[in-house]
Design brief:
The chain is built from 78 helices and 28 strands. By secondary structure, it is α+β, with helices and mostly antiparallel strands. Helix 31 crosses helix 35 and helix 36 packs across helix 40. It starts with a helix and ends in a 5-residue tail after the last strand.
Length: 1932
């Protein structure tokens, strides 16, 4: 645009120039420029240069322009009345353009420069919301992106690409081989060698080199001038925006220059980076006051640019210090350390507390960081580029400036200079960002720039080396976080020295740190940079300091008394911060530690990580016990340590022990991750319920798919490492202590738990055991390969639920760092998916709910790979575990593998990596065995608080132990006795295999004195020595887990650390009371006499409910021991599990086998029934009663459900279109005289009466579906290029409109309104569900809906409601006319009256005045429903009269309603009546009987077609189709009643014209007024409806047939007339001749040839045929008319009338429609209507003329009819001809045909401008009915408070609109005042929708879905099928 203006300016001085300061300058600019150019081209060009400088000084002087921004008054003065401030700027720009072009035209100059562009790079810069592409196959950097043009011009077929909307902006990488592979370059950017680009001639850009420095300096001065340091008020932002607006043209000018290509860019680079230029122009402020002022402002702005704060700075010299003066910076830094972290802090003591700590950290930082000097110091600028960037930052990254700076990037030299400048300003960017009010926008702009710079590895490496990029980034991040630190309250609240970030601060809550972290992650993805980082010890220390700020943040304290008042939602900020700021950089670093050579890096990280952890433990004063009731989910240091350990073992072959700390440190390390696991169990047990919902949110986020592999996985891995290295007894007892279930693990039946309420015990015990199972079974980091992990994750997700492809991608935790090389959708993903899952294509349910393509696990996956442990680990919601088990159960039942309720299957684990073998010692430690023994015993004895889940986990652990038994027993027969083996008297050794058979006889327990054991087991007679002997033979002491753990801990500490005595505070915290100190506990001795094996066998008996149910299988089949993998044991319940375990135990040792056999031999006595105390009995009774009540309730519910189901199947039956609507009105007695209706509200049955009428529930809606019919079969295509357009001229509605307006031009208005039907557009369509109700009941129902405050999806005020029975949407009630059955038979009897008599009777009956019946309730309702019908459609669709409000209008409207409903029914039947029948579903027999029995109305109630072919379900089908004659009949009653009020003047009654001859034809033409419409121009179907509805109801069948016969003669005549017009002159004369010959034969009046010849003869008297010019010949079809083709034409012309008439007869008289072949449809319908004589034989070819029965001599009446036309065509031959040819062959309506691939629609429409507002809409949409392009929600196109889509839905669909939203790929339906999202008809390759195009994968049309949509549109069932409607308030 700028260029055009310039070109105009070049044209010469005739333009009015604004006044300039020096009059001499108003010369011709072009001449001046040419003169200067010549001067500068001379060898000695100093004079020219000076002249140019002077000119530029004047033109570009910075005194005028920006005063406006700075201060108000001066601005007004300066503007000096004249052109205002803008004019001067424009003038300056004009000058610059002229000077650059050196006197030539600016446009030619641009073109010339472009010719020298070596465009190897695209570099197109875009801003947010731009649609770009990313191809992972071609990308080297994951940030690679392409503009649409480059993408489509490259070859990416079969690649993994997607389209995306840019969030922050970006630039196209096409042509940049650093970022993408060359194979993906587009045609334009496939490497051009620069040799074929000619050299730039020196003089072309010479002027630019002189002019641009001044221009840029001028711009900088403007920027300096406009900037004011923000004061307290916030208005400064507005000022900045003002300045930027004024500078818009200048920056745009620079931007245009960058687009001229490489040659101009290199000049700009020179200008921007040349230090000399900058020095010359900015060095001395000079004598100019204005320049001085701006320079001062610049210095002030610079002051705050360093990281240090002004008061600490010693000197502010702007003069450059020599390279050596670093002392200044260091001093400044040292001064700053004290205050830095505290600047924002107001709390005094807090300051002191963290200061000491802060200093320690920061001193470390200052010594280790080389970058300090440059960061701490004030910035110094040496070139324009540097100062430009500085101001860009100051002004918070204005979009234009950002775009200009990025547009320059294709220039390599500039790119390097700019990157260095960017790094130099990095700290300043951070400071500005923190202060900014618009941090979101600013963040996006920063990343927009940085991603272009840092994605390039070569550049990142260079800047890292030359500018200390890494040091700067880490330091800046550290400084950023230091502003929001608070004291940590973890562990030791008073004395803690640890500080953490405060997650409530805006910095974290709003993710303000995001751009910096994102840059850091980006540079760490480059190997060379990451290596530098991992080698630099100072950096690692600093980084660990940074990470420790997040360690322990967002601490939760359990609320024990009150519910927390305010639920803080900061937790998500904490999780996001840990993921982004800690975990993602960690994954980035890990991706470079994949090989052996990188061992050193891992050692470094681990070393500094452990140091940081040690510091952390010291800072929080941690010894051995975690503080109670506290949990933090954030332990990034632990997780760094864990992940680097894992990598070291997995990829670098490091020896694990070499990087592990001592035992004491390991003990400390395990405490906090273990605390998290215990807290998870507590949260799920509802122990944290007083903390509100957010704590559950944290527990879920911790395991959620995006977080789990940076959170729970490393935690569990770290615990596995600790468990493998620590004493197993210590570890196990720690676990049970953390889970607070120690007190529960006693043999006694009662116990006291000091730390846990009884109601939580069970779930905590389940939690502890489940945790142990996960810990021991999980192999994610213990030796599984990546593919195995992927497979396990996928199987776990698929087992929970069937998943779509995209949700699987989302749920499977990928390596969170996008640059890790594991790409979602990578080949391994697809191959694993196809190996484990089957694809279920999307199915279409007729109910309208649309499925997506789903993946479901293969059978063999359920059989062999279903792993409940993995499922438990990965479920966010506990219900998913149940869902997986239910699906597993269903699979087993289906495949016949197991009929009952299975237990989770035991899955064999892959082998452990040797480094972790120690983990299995947990399974072989006495502590665990004691716990297992105790729990088995308790379960067997039915102690409280134990569940099947507990048993399941216990058995799982035993089985794990058997699978992983370490050493085989060397000497099986060793005696188990011997005191030395029994030192702790529970178990002899630590191997589970041998411990299983060890019998335990007596156990001493501590129990409350009330316990039953006390009395039973201490009989008075027991002597003491007796007790003593018991003790030796194996009574255990009280086994206290806590004491054990303490002991072990003490041992370890003493061993590892001599001064441990000072460290260990002997604090047994009060909670863990020593076993003896608890009140009223006493010791009892229990007799047990069991081993684990005997307990298992008894359990088997207990589970199976039979005595001696276990029989060792090997006794029958010795093979089992040799080949133990038996499928029969792999799935089953607890019994199977016990059998499997016993078999494994027998396999492992002969001794066990023998003992099992022994136990089985002893016949086990039954378990003694427990003595039940009274209290227990009471609870049991209560339980029993509850159980019974539950069963009763279940029974009731089941009964109710089956009732509901049977109702649904009958009344609503959504799924099977075969069922008919049940009408409970059928009765067996044929003598019923009145129709009986059931009211669905009050339930009473009875007839409809005058004073208590019954009504039918109906939905009235305006419809334009009919108007969309066209005469071609192929649906129109949606336009996808500018050339394609859809014109509505050939639609049914348009053709009818044209016809009516033509008639109204030449004929009398009232007569025109009787000659046609309206309602093709906006016709009222009536449908019903078939249910009836009393009208007074309905009124009270509506009243109750009105008072109901619940939000409904409909508007009660508009009369909308849902049918009380079937809940179908409705909006009116159609009164049922009281009718009786008896007369019906009389009316239908054939009569022998002659045609003439009947014609007379019809005339007479029509002549009777129709009076409204007296004021009854019925008549009132009739009126009100008529009003409803009128109000359903807009006025424009019912007012066609020239005189507003004329009764003719109402008359036309009423019979058109009948026409609309009949025509639509015909469409629902597929456009013809070939399928006949009462319904196309073909259940005719039952219907027949009903129709004999029921009243005339009911007879038709089921007879309409159900459209089986359309997959619609009947309940939802429409009045016409499904329902019914009932509805139709009642509708006719209402219409007829109203039409009889308007009696047609008998003079004008068309009936006379049809049946009587006029004596004097000319008399009619005498008067001057407009004539009436000639009868041959009348629409016959409309005449039929008028005649029928004018008759008194009910109608006699004979009268109906009479009317039809009369009208058929007219129709046939019209057909012949139309045919005569269509054919050529020769044909006409031939026919005229042949017909004349036959005129005197006997059946002349039934021969079409005779009639045709007569008509031609009559019509040729007028001018009808004379007007033929040459153009007419084109219109006439060239085919020769054969008798066959003529017969076909005549039949086709008459068929539409016959179809509508047959339907009408079917509804009025309840006669079934015959079915037939298409070719015989005419004859079948004709005989059905009584047009064909009964004796007619059909052997010879059928002749349509044989149906004619003329009421009066045919030739006379035809003469009369033709005379009317003749007189008209004498004046208007053209129109006369057009009106004769009626187009009657309309094809079925269709929606537009859509292209196969969605991209073609998207690319054309998403950038298309709206024709109304000429802008590109934010939400473009396109109408699928007519193809109109509209703005959704666009305020730009709003008219009278209606947005464009709503408006269009009214104009195009009379209130129904179907729109495709271009940017979302979904379809939205507007119906009246409501709308709903319908879904998408485009699915991706995996059968999924992509709403909002989030995934951006290619989408393809789903034809089945589109068919369903079209079907719902045609059948008007949107309201019934789609459930989610909401009001749109005209805002769409």
């Amino acid at each position: 645009m700028a260029a055009a203006a310039a070109a105009a300016a070049v044209g010469g001085p005739q333009q009015s120039q604004p006044e300039l300061p020096a009059p001499g300058l108003a010369l011709d600019k072009a001449a001046t420029a040419a003169h200067l150019k010549a001067a500068l081209s001379r060898p000695d060009n100093r004079a020219g240069a000076e002249e140019l400088q002077a000119l530029l000084e004047r033109v570009l002087s910075a005194e005028r322009p920006l005063a406006a921004a700075a201060g108000g008054e001066e601005a007004a003065a300066a503007a000096g009345g004249g052109g205002g401030p803008g004019a001067a700027e424009e003038e300056a720009l004009e000058w610059c353009k002229c000077l650059l072009a050196g006197g030539g035209g600016y446009d030619e100059f641009c073109a010339a420069v472009r010719a020298y562009d070596p465009a190897a790079l695209c570099g197109l810069v875009w801003t947010a919301n731009f649609v770009a592409y990313r191809c992972r196959t071609c990308g080297i950097s994951p940030c690679m992106s392409l503009c649409a043009e480059c993408f489509h011009q490259g070859d990416h077929t079969g690649h993994d690409f997607n389209m995306f909307r840019s969030q922050a902006g970006g630039a196209c990488d096409c042509g940049d081989s650093n970022v993408m592979r060359e194979s993906g370059f587009c045609k334009r950017h496939q490497i051009k060698s620069s040799s074929n680009i000619p050299c730039v001639p020196k003089d072309l850009l010479m002027m630019s080199e002189f002019v641009l420095p001044r221009f840029i300096f001028c711009l900088i001065q403007y920027l300096r001038d406009g900037y004011n340091e923000p004061a307290a008020d916030v208005s400064s932002e507005k000022d900045l925006n003002k300045v930027l607006q004024l500078l818009e043209p200048q920056i745009s000018f620079l931007e245009d220059l960058t687009k001229m290509g490489g040659a101009m860019r290199s000049v700009l680079t020179q200008v921007l980076t040349n230090q000399q230029n900058y020095k010359d122009l900015t060095s001395g402020p000079g004598e100019n006051a204005c320049a001085k002022k701006s320079h001062e402002k610049y210095l002030i702005a610079l002051k705050s640019s360093g990281l240090t704060y002004p008061e600490d700075k010693l000197v502010y010299g702007i003069q450059e210090p020599s390279a050596g003066t670093s002392t200044l910076a260091v001093q400044g830094f040292a001064g700053a350390t004290g205050t830095l972290g505290q600047v924002d802090s107001s709390d005094e003591e807090d300051q002191d507390g963290s200061q000491g700590l802060g200093k320690r950290k920061r001193v470390k930082l200052s010594s280790g960081t080389k970058a300090d000097q440059s960061i701490m110091d004030v910035l110094k600028h040496k070139s324009f580029l540097e100062e430009l960037l500085f101001w860009t930052i100051k002004y918070e990254f204005p979009q234009k400036m950002v775009t200009f700076l990025l547009n320059m990037l294709p220039d390599q030299e500039y790119k390097v200079a700019f990157t260095k400048t960017f790094v130099q300003h990095y700290a300043f960017i951070m400071k500005t960002l923190k202060k900014s009010h618009e941090s979101d926008t600013m963040s996006n702009r920063i990343v927009h720039i940085s991603v272009q710079l840092f994605s390039n590895e070569e550049l990142a490496r260079q800047v890292t080396e030359e500018c200390q990029l890494l040091d700067i980034m880490v330091t800046v991040l550290l400084y950023m976080m230091e502003s929001c630190l608070i004291k940590s309250e973890l562990q030791d609240e008073e004395n803690s020295l640890h500080v953490v970030v405060n997650c409530g601060e805006a910095l974290l809550k709003n993710n303000t740190y995001w751009p910096l972290v994102s840059d850091f992650i980006n540079i760490l993805s480059h190997q060379s940079v990451a290596k530098r980082f991992l080698e630099d010890h100072g950096l690692l220390v600093t980084w660990m300091n940074f990470v420790s700020f997040f360690q322990g943040m967002n601490l939760n304290k359990r609320e024990l008394n009150e519910h927390v008042e305010f639920e803080s939602q900061t937790y998500y900020a904490a999780f996001a911060a840990e993921l982004e700021a800690c975990a993602q950089p960690m994954w980035g670093l890990l991706s470079h530690c994949k090989i052996r050579e990188t061992q050193e890096y891992t050692r470094n990280v681990v070393r500094y990580c452990l140091e940081a952890l040690q510091d952390w433990f010291d800072a929080i004063n941690f010894v051995d016990e975690p503080a109670p009731n506290q949990v933090t989910f954030h332990l990034p240091l632990h997780r760094y340590y864990a992940m680097f350990l894992s990598k070291a073992v997995k990829c670098q072959e490091l020896d694990l022990d070499s990087v592990l700390p001592d035992q004491e440190m390991l003990m400390k390390l395990m405490i906090h991750p273990l605390q998290i696991q215990a807290s998870l169990a507590e949260i799920h047990s509802n122990m944290w319920v007083r903390n509100g919902l957010q704590i559950k949110g944290q527990a879920m986020t911790y395991v959620q798919s995006h977080f789990c592999n940076s959170m729970i996985d490393p935690d569990i891995y770290l615990l596995q490492v600790c468990a493998s290295r620590l004493d197993p007894d210590y570890f196990i007892s720690s676990v049970f202590e953390r889970f607070k279930v120690v007190d529960l693990l006693t043999m006694a039946s009662q116990h006291q738990n000091t730390v846990l309420d009884a109601e939580h015990e069970r779930s905590m015990l389940e939690g502890a055991l489940t945790f142990l199972v996960i810990l021991l079974s999980l192999r994610l980091h213990l030796g599984m390969s990546d593919d195995e992990i992927l497979r396990a994750e996928m199987v776990a997700q698929l087992c929970m639920n069937d998943r779509t492809h995209s949700s699987l991608l989302d749920l499977i935790p990928e390596n969170p760092n996008p640059k890790s090389g594991i790409i979602p959708g990578s080949y391994s993903f697809e191959s694993v998916l196809s190996a484990v899952a089957d694809f279920k294509a999307p199915v279409f349910e007729p109910g309208g709910s649309m499925q997506q393509g789903m993946y479901t696990p293969k059978a063999e996956v359920w059989d062999q790979e279903f792993d409940p442990v993995m499922v438990i680990l990965r479920t966010v919601y506990r219900r998913d575990v149940q869902s997986a088990m239910d699906r597993y159960t269903a699979f087993l039942k289906q495949s016949g593998k197991f009929p009952g309720n299975p237990w989770p299957p035991y899955k064999k684990r892959s082998s452990l990596h040797p480094s972790y073998k120690g983990l299995m010692r947990l399974l072989h430690c006495k502590t665990l065995h004691i716990v297992l023994f105790t729990l088995l015993y308790k379960i067997l004895m039915d102690h409280q608080n134990l569940s099947e889940h507990v048993l399941c986990m216990v058995l799982y652990l035993i089985e794990l132990g058997l699978e992983n038994s370490t050493e085989d027993e060397s000497d099986e027969e060793t005696s188990v006795g011997g005191p030395e083996r029994c030192h702790d008297s529970w178990f002899p050794g630590s191997n589970l295999v041998s411990n299983m058979r060890h019998f335990i006889n007596y156990v001493r327990v501590r129990v409350p004195e009330t316990a039953p054991e006390v009395k039973r087991d201490s009989p008075a007679s027991t002597s003491s020595d007796n007790l003593g002997s018991l003790q030796n033979s194996g009574t255990a002491q009280v086994f206290s887990l806590v004491a054990e753990r303490r002991k072990k801990f003490q041992e370890i500490i003493n061993r590892s650390n001599s001064e441990a005595n000072q460290v260990v505070r002997p604090k047994t915290s009060s909670k863990w009371s020593a076993p003896g100190s608890a009140p009223q506990l006493t010791t009892a001795i229990l007799e047990i006499k069991e081993s684990i094996l005997s307990l298992l066998i008894k359990l088997h008996h207990k589970l199976s409910g039979k005595q001696n149910s276990y029989y060792p299988p090997w006794l029958d089949d010795i093979e089992i021991l040799i080949q133990p993998e038996i499928p029969k044991y792999s799935h089953g319940d607890g019994i199977t599990a016990v059998e499997r375990i016993l078999l494994k135990a027998a396999l492992q040792s002969r001794m066990n086998k023998r003992i099992i056999e022994e136990i089985c031999r002893k016949v086990t006595p039954p378990v003694p029934p427990k003595k039940i105390t009274a209290a227990e009995k009471k609870t049991l009774d209560k339980e029993e009663r509850r159980q019974k009540a539950r069963e009763r309730q279940q029974k009731l519910l089941a009964e109710f459900a089956s009732r509901q189901k049977s109702f649904m199947e009958t009344a609503m039956d959504v799924d099977s279109p075969e069922n008919d609507i049940p009408m409970e009105i059928t009765t067996a007695e044929p003598q019923v005289s009145e129709a009986v209706y059931d009211c669905v509200i009050c339930g009473q049955s009875g007839p409809s009466s005058e004073d208590r009428p019954t009504g039918l529930v109906v939905l009235l809606q305006a419809s334009s579906v009919l108007g969309q019919c066209r005469d071609n079969v192929e649906p129109k295509k949606l336009p996808i290029t500018e050339e394609e357009q859809i014109f509505p001229w050939d639609t049914c509605a348009a053709v009818h409109d044209v016809r009516l307006s033509l008639l109204q031009r030449y004929f009398k208005d009232s007569s025109c309104l009787l000659a046609v039907s309206i309602g093709w557009e906006g016709g009222v369509y009536v449908q019903t569900c078939g249910h009836t109700l009393h009208i007074d009941c309905h009124k009270s129902y509506m009243e109750s809906l009105r008072n109901d405050q619940v939000l409904q999806g409909f508007s009660v005020d508009k009369g909308e409601f849902t049918c009380p029975l079937c809940r179908q949407f409705a909006n009116s009630v159609l009164p049922c006319y009281p009718g009786s059955n008896v007369e019906n038979n009389l009316w239908q009897r054939p009569s022998n009256k002659s045609m003439q008599d009947l014609i007379k009777e019809v005339e007479e009956l029509q002549g009777r005045p129709g009076a409204f019946p007296s004021e009854t309730n019925l008549s009132k309702e009739m009126e009100s429903v008529m009003k409803d019908i009128k109000n359903t459609t807009q006025k424009k669709y019912r007012d066609y009269s020239k005189t507003p409000g004329s009764p003719d209008n109402d008359f036309l409207f009423m019979y058109s309603v009948a026409r609309t409903n009949l025509e639509l029914e015909l469409i629902h039947r597929g456009g013809n009546l070939c399928s006949g029948g009462a319904s196309t579903a073909g259940k005719r027999s039952c219907l027949k009987k009903e129709s004999e029995v029921q009243s005339d109305c009911l007879a038709k109630s089921h007879t309409a077609g159900k459209c089986q072919s359309l997959h619609l379900n009947p309940a939802l089908l429409t009045l016409n189709s499904v329902m019914s004659g009932i509805g139709k009949d009642q509708l006719f009653h209402v219409l007829a009643l109203h039409m009889r009020l308007y009696s047609i003047d008998s003079e004008y009654n068309p009936w006379k014209k049809l049946t009587q001859l006029v004596e004097d034809m000319n008399s009619q033409l005498g008067n001057d007024e407009q004539p009436e419409v000639p009868i041959l121009y009348h629409d016959v179907t409309s005449l039929l409806l008028i005649q029928i509805l004018m008759m008194p109801q009910p109608l006699h069948k004979e009268h109906f047939t009479c009317i039809v016969k009369v009208l058929f003669t007219l129709l046939y005549t019209q057909a012949l007339a139309a045919l005569s017009v269509k054919c050529s002159e020769e044909d006409r004369s031939a026919w005229k001749h042949t017909g004349a010959l036959k005129k005197n034969t006997c059946d002349a009046e039934k021969s079409y040839e005779v009639l045709l010849s007569f008509i031609i003869n009559e019509l040729s008297k007028g001018k009808l045929y004379h007007e033929e010019g040459t153009q007419e010949c084109v219109m006439i079809s060239p085919i020769a008319w054969s008798p066959e083709s003529m017969e076909k034409y005549l039949q086709d012309f008459c068929l539409p009338f016959l179809r509508i008439t047959s339907l009408l007869q079917h509804h009025l008289f309840g006669e079934d429609l015959p079915s037939c072949q298409e070719e015989e449809e005419f004859s079948v319908l004709a005989s059905c209507l009584g047009l064909l004589p009964a004796f007619y034989q059909t052997e010879h070819p059928f002749i349509s003329a044989s149906c004619l029965e003329w009421p009066v001599p045919p030739f006379d009446i035809i003469t009369q009819w033709c005379f009317e036309i003749k007189s008209f065509t004498e004046r208007h031959a053209e129109q006369g001809k057009a009106l004769l040819i009626q187009e009657s062959k309309w094809k079925l309506p269709h929606l537009l045909q859509l292209p196969e691939n969605y991209n073609t629609i998207f690319q054309y429409y998403h950038r298309k401008t709206c024709s109304v507002c000429t802008k590109v809409p934010k939400d473009p949409a396109v109408c699928l009915v007519c193809g109109t392009f509209v703005c959704l929600k666009g305020l730009c196109c709003k008219q009278q408070s209606y947005c464009e889509c709503v408006l269009h839905s009214q104009n195009c669909g009379a209130g129904t609109g179907i729109f495709l939203l271009i940017n979302a790929s979904v379809i939205i339906i507007i119906r009246g005042h409501r709308f709903c999202l319908w879904g998408s008809v485009y699915l991706d390759a995996h059968g999924e929708e992509d709403r909002d195009l989030r995934r951006g994968k290619p989408l393809y049309i789903c034809k089945e879905r589109y068919k369903v949509l079209e079907q719902q549109w045609i059948s008007h069932t949107f309201d019934h099928i789609n459930k989610r409607w909401g009001p749109h308030y005209n805002g769409l």
